[in-house]
Structure formats: C-alpha cells, structure tokens
Amino acid sequence: MGVPKLFLPIDGESLLRRAIDAAESADRIIVVSGAYHRAISEHLESDYPTLIIVENPDWKAGMGGSIAAGVAAALPDQPEALLVLLADQPEVDADYLAGLWQASTESPQRIVATEYPEGPGVPAIFPRRYHGTLLREAGRGGAKRLLRKTASVHLLRPRRPLVDLDTPEDYRNYTGQALPE
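^ that's the sequence the OP posted. Answer follows.
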C-alpha cells in the first residue's frame, strides 16, 4: 500500500478500529501487529485499555506467523473458541460476527468459516480442539490450510461479498477515493 493499511479511513474510522468495534462482543480481543507495532499500540491504547496487542516480529513471513502469535497469546486462558479476523475487510461487521458465533454455538465442535467462491476462509471460529493444530500449522499457509483440509467446517455465506483491501486500487474501488497522503 505504501502507507500503514490498518490506519486507512473508512467512513471516518480506521480499518483497525472498525475491526475491533465489530468484535466488541468477544471476551478478549488480541491484536497482532507487525511492521507498525508502536504506531498501532499508540493508535489504540487510550480507547481500548483492555486490548492485548502482540507483536509478530516475523511479520514479513506472512499471515501465518501473525495467527500463531495471536493463538499463543490466547492459549493461556484456554478459550473454548478463537475467532480469526482480518482488519482489512471493511464489510465484516458485528452482525456478521454474531452470525458466526451463533453457528459456532449450534455446532461447537466444528470450525465455522466464511464461504468464498474459492473455498472456506476467515473470518472463522476455531473450537478448542483445533487450537494446537492452528498454532503448529499457522506458519504453513495460515488458517487457510487447516480450513481446507478439515472435513468438519460449517460455512456461513455473507450477505454481500467480503472484500480485502490489499492494494491502493482496492481502496479506491471500495471508497471511491485515492489513498490519503
């Protein structure tokens, strides 16, 4: 992007804050940062005092290391389930996440994932029995590999397509604006 993507504004709020606000009903929120750890911490600390911010020093290796860092930070509390959520998907809101949690409550032993044309993806909820596997295999393809090789996945179709804002063109297409200077 050429700029810290998670600070990009969508309707007056940063992508990162939108994701955290969407997940506000979670028992605990862990944000995994990489290249902009200090800036992310400063961006969030005053408004989200209970937030846990974990740095992934190996962020260049891909999303898998960030997932592993987040899972490792969550495991001491032995959560029943973990939600893996990306902050660059502005269409993910509290209602969609509530639907994921509802499906997870109805099928507590199954992974609940988002349905995409190319297969299951995140946001996704992983029951406790998958946490060790998610931690071990996260560096080898992120959560995608686990989602695609596990037979017990319940898919939830979003009401509208979930876009990832990965490039300046994605941002421009989504917002109708160029990247802020």
